[in-house]
Amino acid sequence: MYTKVVRELLRSLFGEAKKKLNHKLTPEEIRFIIVVAMLTSFLAIWFIAVNFGDDLNLSPVFSSSRTRVVNPQGVLSGTPITTPYNLVASDGNEQIILGWSAPTGGIGGGYYEVYRSITSNVAVNGVLIGRTIADETHFVDTQATIGQTFWYGVRVNGNNFISDVEQGSVSSTTGMRWSYETTDVIESLSFGDHGTKLFWSSSLGNNIHARLFSTIDSNPPTPIFTKDTATILSYNSIINVAAARNADVYGDVAFAVGSGSVYPHLRTYTSSIQPVFNYTSIANTNVYGNGLWISDDGTRNIAFLPTNSTDYFSRIITFDSFGTILNEVVTTQLPSMMSSSNRFDFSGDGSRIAFTTLISRREVVDSITGSLVFDDAWGGPSAFQDITINYDGSIMASAHTVDPVIRIENLNSGLESVIYLPATNPNLDLHYGRIAISDDGMRLAYAYSDIDGLGNDLSKRGGALLWDISSPQDPILLVNYLFEAPATPYQESMVEIKITPDGNRFVYGTRGDGTSSINDKQIKVFEAGQNNPIAEFNLPLGNNGAEITGSSPYDVDISPDGTKIAVAVKNGHWTSGNAFKEVNLYDVA
Q1: Which CATH superfamily, name and number, covers 174-330?
Q2: Is the Cα torsion angle 145, 146, 148, 151 positive or negative in sign?
Q3: Is 547 exposed, middle or buried (0-12, 13-18, 19+ CB in 10 A)?
Q4: Looking at residue 300, what is its pLDDT?
């Protein structure tokens, strides 16, 4: 076909020479014909794409960017643009981040609505997934799960026109695995059974709701069990949970209030029995400290509960897996009362309990005898922000609010070591920190910020550190991460930190006080040897009525192998009275 066309073309061009063309084509002539044919084909495709691309809904196949602007109103005509344009979505990150250009005429004090679809026809099939904080031109899809691809569109609230459509995807190895919506108050959650299960208990009025989930479930997850326990008393939401590291056993301890007394309630569960046993006692209303430990194999449970005395005692009870009491002691009278805001930590073997008290004391108690193993006071209000103890109970560390130091106590030798923050780190007025130690006591993680409302910088500065403390007098810095938040009403006060048993990874969560939906990455995961996070996650925006703000983590946990992160999310500021929003589970490669 092409040979005939070219012959006719050459005859018309060369006139009398056309007779000379009636011969068998040489290889050189054939190559010439092929080149002409290819050029003709490419020119035809280009002509169609340029002149009819929008009508045929074509996209630039060879473009280095997948962003495509369909001639927004005003770009050529000079009239104001009323629709967001230049929509861009990220590909292959932990979360899908959207950004766009604002209409040239502004949005009149409104906000943007973000729509998502599993098909490219967002205008018809798109579902509203959120709105922006005021006129911010970016949005993070915190609900897109691992390995998924979506199409997005954006519009100004009250406007019927949607922006150009853009496609985005989540990493196949690091991202959200599932999200479970709940408005219950979730104060703590815990991985169990080799990291394959996630357990939490929550309170709502007179009810305790225990939930167990698989960490390999799809989104949305289906509870393995849901156990609702109702009483005639009202729970005050001070709930602590525990899970056996290597067995299918879980437990919770909570306070019920009624008739002028506090009633600590302890329950344990398995996947097949809920509850396995239930224990209730009575306590003085002014004492709120409680905690629970479950052995790695799930055969023993230890709870420390307040007594009915007005003095500062604590009852420590050891149960077997069926609820039989193996040991019960009342501690030596404590120098100070423990409140719900004080911190505690069980040693991994359950032999010792470390905690802070109201008048700035650090205490370590033997769980079998009830005797004080360590007692120390420090001047100033709330001087010790956090405390942690290693697996065999031999090494305890505490975070201090006034001085930029970590105090490490060897409980066997009685020696104390002090670790100072690196000189390159911000010299904050007061520290608000969380601390965690590895099983062997050789690695120590610390995340800190300026104290909310007390320091001059309102929690705008801080960092995360990981040390090798095998020689506490000469610690080796393994992670040194610094942050400084923008100069807005933006705060990153530490909420919680957790570390893997081997101390190789840790995660921390910060309050969502930000006014930015993209910069407020409240969850950060670190690995030894890397100063920057190996993964970080935005939490969903909180809806406080008419106001949209950042939400906050209330508790976080990390699986024993460091590949899964769990977060209980509150709908707004960490200290606000708002209800909870969801529990999220993330995979981290």
Answers
A1: YVTN repeat-like/Quinoprotein amine dehydrogenase (2.130.10.10)
A2: positive
A3: exposed
A4: 98
